[in-house]
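ESCALATION

Customer reports they have been waiting on this structure for their group meeting. Please prioritize. Original submission:
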Amino acid sequence: MSQPYGSVVTQLTGLELLEVSAIGPNNFPSAYTETTTVQAIANLANQLNNQTNYAYNVNSTTTSATLSAANVTGGSVGVFLNLTGITASATMTTPAASSWVAALPDPAVDQTYMLRIIDSSGLSNTVTLVGGQNVTAIGTMTVQGTTQPEWRDLLVTVSSVSPAGITLQDVGAGTSV
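Update from on-call: job pushed to the front of the queue and completed.
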């Protein structure tokens, strides 16, 4: 197949990208391979294939506590954290950003996922979420407990990898039936 003047032929061969420019006026033939870019794409695909999209975690503490990084991570798209044991209004402090980011596979700035905090204790109480060290919370950070499970959705964003930083943005709440 012939290529018109000024066109570029790109072919993926193995783990190399071969790019050959067409010959034309003021366009001299050249070719180069870009292994790094293709290898990076292959590595990213492998990482995505090895990640779990959603995680369901349970914390059965009955009082105020600091959540672990394992409580708030585990899914690349969404994490559900069910607080099953809350017996009275409580404050839950997130893990420090350094622990949180360290628990993420290959963290990157602007990486995001949804975190749903659920109070399924069945009691009328309020769970207040407080950001740990270098965790910035924006918006309402409470889950108002009733006789039915209540939840709050938060958008988790890695704002910095080194030093670690996490931003939590409230995106809504609701009642499960």
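Sent to customer with the following note: Confidence is low (pLDDT under 50) at residues 1-13.
Escalation resolved.
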